Amino acid sequence: MAYIIAEPCVDVKDASCVAVCPVDCIHGGPEDNMLYINPDECIDCGACAPECPVSAIFPEDQVPEQWREYIQMNYAYFGKTK
Amino acid sequence: MNDIPAVLSTVDPPTRACCDRAPTPGMLHAFEQFNRGEYFEQHETLEWIWRAETDTTIRNFYKGILQVGVGFHHLRKGNYNGVIKVLGRGINYLKPYAPACYGVDVARLIEEASAVYWRVRDKGRLETRDLEMELPQVHLVRESRLKEVRMEYQTLPALRVGEHVRKITFEEYLALEDQGVQTEWVNGEVRVYMPVSVKHQQLVNFLDRVLGMFVELLGLGIVLTDRIVMRALVNVAREPDLIFLSQQNRERLKATHLAGAADFVVEIVSDESVGRDRADKFYEYEEIGVREYLIIDPRQGKQRVDYFGLDDSGKYQPILADQEDKFHSRVIPGFWFRKEWLLQENLPDALDCLAEIRGLNDSEIQILRRLLTGAK
Ligand code: SF4
Ligand code: SF4
Fold this sequence. Notes:
The structure holds two protein chains of two kinds.
Chain A: E1 3-5, H1 16-20, E2 26-27, E3 36-37, E4 57-59, H2 69-77
Antiparallel strand pairs in A: 1-4, 2-3
Chain B: H1 16-19, H2 25-35, H3 39-52, H4 56-76, H5 80-94, E1 100-101, E2 104-105, H6 106-123, H7 143-152, E3 164-167, H8 170-176, E4 182-186, E5 189-193, H9 198-217, E6 221-224, E7 230-233, E8 236-238, E9 242-246, E10 258-259, E11 264-268, H10 274-288, E12 292-297, E13 304-310, E14 316-318, E15 326-328, E16 336-338, H11 339-343, H12 350-357, H13 362-373
Parallel strand pairs in B: 7-10, 11-12
Antiparallel strand pairs in B: 1-2, 3-5, 4-5, 4-8, 6-9, 7-8, 9-11, 12-13, 13-14, 15-16
Helix pairs in contact in B: 2-3, 2-10, 3-4, 3-10, 4-5, 5-6, 9-12
Bound molecules: iron/sulfur cluster (2 copies).
């Protein structure tokens, strides 16, 4: 399990979450339109979720139905499949 | 030994001054968790401390230890990528703090953790799950050496927010108190904190009125706010937001400070104080025997009340609300409160709350109000 970033982040990307992740596992470069959480490094501490101003971050098993494709996208960003 | 590939862009160089400090009780607690192999728990403790630390020259020290621990957590789960990334990053974070910092033998931790890192790399992804090895611990350098470096550390005080000032004695610290800033005395250093917000003051004031009147009416003891100095450990003095001291411990109250533990302490959390309140003070208050500790976090999005009482073995256990959502104090007989009182935007009427605690019904409260206001 990991935390997943979903659609509300797109084009917001203000990185509030990055500053609180204790293991620095939230990534994304200037060319991306959102950020992604590395599922290998995430320890499910939940620190990032309340920091997000647009509530884009969910535990993997609680991602709302309409955004479930973002689970796959988070994994794929780090070259993994779910 | 080979260097681990750098994954960091910038690390603020530490100053010797911060490295020369002794570890705080919160840190020692985290190290104990680390050494017991409670890697998730050590991360939580260090995360509080890390997030509260405003001194950027030391923040990565906490993060380094935290991530080395999380790397071991991933290793236990057989997560090769997690070990390589997080353990590697943790070790690199620690490098500027070698050989020793906050009493920790950093050089030794780096060396031993690097050995684990390279072993995992050599064995490769497929064998990570089956790797059996003893994992390194956090060791402290000799206490005597800590004392030597502490002695050298002498500069003049300059009271600015967030600054750690030179070593002074407890008596000198008390003399500084009338400067009108919020300070605490930790390991012999003065720390200066942000002035508190209006909301914070209102909350303290509300509790002061309700609890203060309650204990006065019943002759149970005394409630003090306004930065009363409480000597926590030999070398630490805190200024809790509110304390209650029972009648039988009254002799602990001296002319300028409280020598020993209060019976009940309230701290109100702000962004800047969260690590101190939840980690450092939690363990200090437990250690010196503050019988109940109430932590109120009124911040947007947090809105938490955590209430702890000492159990028979002197450890804090959470105190939970009863079926009617009342939290009952065990050290202030008859006193209880509701969480909503403390978290609502506009604080409730103190007199109403006091009357409710004393079991008055609505019409009795009306009568009491009329008598007090003189209204017909
Ligand atoms: S849950 Fe914790 S570890 Fe995972 S991304 Fe959020 S802050 Fe980082
Ligand atoms: S805080 Fe939320 S919106 Fe901002 S970058 Fe993180 S996930 Fe995206």
